[in-house]
Every structure is written in C-alpha cells, then in structure tokens.
Amino acid sequence: MQDASNGDIFGFSDVQLWHRPLDMPNRRERKYQSLAVEEKESYKWILAAKASKERLAQAKMITFIEDREGDFYEQLSSISQENVHYIIRSKNNRKTTDTLKAWEILSGQPILGSYMLSLQTDYRKKRIKQIIPLKVRYATITLAKGEHIKNNKSYPNTITLQIVEAFEEKKDGISWKLLTTHPIKTFEDAYKIIEWYSQRWMIEQIHRLLKSKGFQIEDSELENGWAIRKICIDMLSSLLKIIQMNIAYNEPEEGQKIEVAFTPNEIECLKEINHKIQGNTHKQKNHNNPQKLKWATWIIGRLGGWKGYDSQGPPRIIVLKTGLDKFNAIYYGWQLARDVGTR
C-alpha cells in the first residue's frame, strides 16, 4: 500500500494465502477453463481488491496496480467504481466491440510524446544499465464479454476503458500495454499511468527477498502449507521495513519518519550502534537526519557489510536484509542487558 502523492509505503492492505494439495488434479483433469472464476486461484485478485476497498474506505482514491495475471474479464469489469481504479498490464489482445482487436486499435493511434527510461543492469536478461527513449500513445476501447465467462449475469456485456502503451520503435523492444479506468486526455495523463505502473518493481523486490536471495522461503523444511503460511506472515513485517529503507536512501527528502519503521526503544539502540560504527573521517560519518528513515538505513546498511561511502552507491536490498537480521540480534541482546541492569 503506497501513497500516490509522495511514494510513502504504509503496509499491506490485504494478504491472500493459499496452497495446493499434493494430490490436486492438473488443470485438464479439473476442466479449469470451464470453471467459474470464483472456483479458480485467480479469484484471489478480486477477493484482495474487495477487502482492500473496505479497509481503505476513507481514502480519496484507490488504484490497484497488477501485472498480466490480473488481466481477466471478471476483474476488469467488477472492481472499479467512482473513486476506485486499476492499472493492469494487458496480457491478451482482446476482442472489442469494433472490428479490430484492442492492440490493433492502439497501434493505429498517434504518438502523444516520449520520455527517457533508465533501465538498471539485469544479468538474468543479459542487459546492462542504459537509458532508452520510449514513445507513448493511448486509445479508448470497449471490450466485449467472452462466451467462456461463467456466472454470466454477474458481469456486464461490455466495459469501456483506456489502454496506454510505452514502447520502443524497434523489433523486440520494450512494449508496456496498460489497461486502466483512469481518464486519459493528454500525454501527462498517460505518462502518470506509466509511472504509477512502474512502482510494481517493489513487488518484484518482495518476491526476491522471500526467495533464495533473502529469507530463503523455498529452502524451508516445513512439512505443511499452514506452517509455510505462518512463516510468510512473520516475514512481512521485516520485508516492509527493508523496502521502506531502500526507498528512503534514494530520496532527497530522506524517506519517511523513522518512527514509521522503528519503535522508540529500537531507535535508542540504533543511536548507540551509530556511535560505535561511525569512522573518524567526514566520509565515514552518518550525516543523515536522525528523524528520518535514511539515517537508520545508513546504520542497517553498515551492519550488512556496506562501507558507507557515496562512491559505493546505496545499500542494496539483500545488504539491508543482512543488516536487519544483525540488528535484530543486537537489539535482543541490548534489551536483555537493559532488563538485567534495572533489576
């Protein structure tokens, strides 16, 4: 859950947990395609949206941002309302009420403008850090309900929405096609949708932290799904704190207030650690505002093995995870010493 105006992260508006039984039949045996959405795993997206709308009822506006898994008609036609919108990456070139399909209509639209996108190094995709130009266009489309949709009366026959594309003008280049219920009239409107969608990178970071590079959930030796669910929930608090710190170190405003992520006692412990790990030179000092999360991030990063020099770049996600683990161990001992000392 993130504030669209300043990027602050506050927590999880809903969590959907499930596991598949070992003896669960495959998709073909279950006749998966013929099932109603309420009987499919994808229904989790709709359930999460409904629960989140209830918890965030006081919000001025809610926007759900999802990757291609969220592109199915039942969700596209049911979760939005006056102050509730979505941005979902298009997975299928869907039929419209016109003679053309959605992507074909989009490709025939004029280019509104362009912007420069900074891509980070991704060794998995054999991509080095680079800046590339992306062009932007959009179209208004009306999608028709497919014949395969079950519970036919529960969903409208058509839905009208916007489809935005940010793309490279070259073969096999980047092409993000985004479905949204937000109104779009200008390049600025379309660019805002693309920028909001780009915030999804935090979800990928959470997945990375849960798996082999972080909490190593895949190496868990727990024997049943319920136990793994519980350990996932326990990890969420630390995951949130790591993401908040990662954002804080890259913000000119030095992130959110430190109290958002750390308790008063934890802050006192951080102060003592900060005093001990600072070096003698100006470059080895923590010059950040102690009231902001970037100050704590510097300390946690140092505990994780980061040297603290600007030339080294900011502490990475995995470094912060290692540092937070060390801090939690130090804090446990620090509290123990305080309790013993007051007896």
Q: What is the radius of gyration? A: 23 Å
In whole angstroms, the N-to-C terminal distance is: 42 Å
Structural class: alpha+beta
Order of SSEs, N→C?
Answer: HHEHEHEEEEHHHHHH
How confident is the prediction overall: mean pLDDT?
85
- CATH class (first level) name of the largest domain: Alpha Beta
The number of distinct helices, counting runs of at least 4 residues, comes to 10
Largest sheet, in brief, is: 6 strands, mixed
In the CATH classification, which architecture of the largest domain applies? Alpha-Beta Complex
Low-confidence stretches: none
Q: Proportion of β residues?
A: 5-15%
Categorize the overall geometry: globular
The count of strands amounts to: 6
- CATH fold title of the largest domain: Transposase Inhibitor Protein From Tn5, Chain A, domain 1
For the largest beta sheet, what order do the strands appear in spatially?
A: 1-2-6-5-4-3
Percentage of residues assigned to helices: 25-40%
Notable characteristics:
343 residues, alpha+beta, Transposase Inhibitor Protein From Tn5, Chain A, domain 1, Transferase Inhibitor Protein From Tn5, Chain A, domain2, 2 domains, 6-stranded mixed beta sheet, 10 helices, 14% strand, globular
